[in-house]
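Q: How would the structure tokens look for this protein?
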Amino acid sequence: MSAQHHGQTAVIAGAGPAGLTAALELLRRSAVTPVVVELDAQVGGIAKTVEYRGNRMDLGGHRFFSKSDWVMRWWQEILPVASGQGGGEDALRINYQSQSHDFRPAANANANANSNAAGDSDSDSDKVMLVRQRLSRIFYRRRFFDYPLKLNANTVRNMGLAETLLVAMSYGRAQILRRSPQISLEDFFVNRFGTRLYRTFFKDYTEKVWGVSCREISAEWGAQRIKGLSVAKAVAHAIGRPFRNLADTSQKRTETSLIERFLYPKFGPGQMWEEVARQVSARGGSVHLRHRVVGLERRGTDIVGVDVLDERAGSVRRLRCDHFISTLPVRDLVAMLEPEDPAVRRVADHLPYRDFMTAGLLLRKMHATGGRADPRAANGMPPDNWIYIQEPDVKIGRLQVFNNWSPAMVADPATIWLGLEYFCRQGDALWSLDDGAFIDLAARELEKIGLIDRRDVLDGTVVRVPKAYPAYFGEYRDFATVRAYLDGFANLYPVGRNGMHRYNNQDHSMLAANAAVDSIVGGSVDKSAIWLINAEEDYHEEAGKLA
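A: Here is the predicted structure in token form.
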């Protein structure tokens, strides 16, 4: 630990995965004291766990899988894998290309880790990760399709033989007559999957998520989110499945849309970040909730002070700052920096975002397609972690089944606890619905597509998440102007999804935070390593995930 950092303070805006990772790493690797300020009343950002009457919600679905060895070890150090997971010790071995790593199951984590009771996570035996089986499907034409699509009997039956042949011909044509240059997301999808498959399974859903045409979205979004996935790889995955070792939970060579097992905290993703926040405080850092950054003091190319509003007390204080790590939305950060260049202000002011709403519905039972009972569960609960709703006649984008993420997410195991995800803009008609009307809309839409009967809805709640998804259209095309401006501040480190205006996952956010700590510890003002995160395929986690 370098003595040069004694007495230094890093103010960290945001207690999500990026901010908390940076705080803990500073405490582990330097004498810099982190002060974390968070607007929300709980930590975790979009990776928090929301609790409602004993039931827990995961906002977006956070699989704990990464192709980064460092991230996988980091998570395990915070929450070890529960003993008895995956059918024995051999099932907990991770193989990373030329090396292997064994999970060390928590000695005090017994079968209670799989308990259905969603009680308080006070005991050490509850501070564990579970090994979960992954299943996600597409719901389209009132039928379930495998996701990613597979060339199997179910797909041919659902699509029909003639349509399947047309899709195959369209894909072949796309491989011969590729769109070049590849500018829009539509270009990317057509080159990767063919026009017919794009129009059937990608176009409508993606435009439901983003609210604009795929022709307006940069191909860069596809390059970051779907990198290695293609029809050819999906076929190769299906052919190779019988020969893979299912005990390998790292699956490092596998595109993440093809991942079949993953780790998950017993009480949802927020449990990870609540434990990290506890460790930050225990090591001498501080985490302040319900605190908003309202101003910055500049001195040349340094940020020397951060004005913070305590929303409970209604008072503002200035925090001295040697380093400033920001997960603030770029739009807000730039406004506080007051740049002289009007181009920087223009681009930052108009960076687009997509907002997000989740309706939590508690049900007695569900229906399979056409009202037939699902043979896999007495109450009709599907086996999926989440389901992409491709149907054009409803607004719902994705459906999570929280029971299948962890049994401890649900207070009563006889009930089904769902999360219905909607994509919107702050202030639009959907966002402005009161909670009761939104819950009613969600229940009516599930009934409309044949998955539930509204009479089986027992309870519901609503969570709104502003600026959940930084978007890759509009003024984003000139984002390099803003990045260059931010990089000009010696002690400013933008990290995380909103901090970089990049559609990062939590492992990308952690890696960016760690790169920022590398710079601080090493005394470097070069930010290039931070911006490389999620720009190279080795860092990519969520291949093929549409939202």
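Residues 328 and 499 are 5 Å apart (CA to CA).

The chain has a mean pLDDT of 85.

Upvote if useful.
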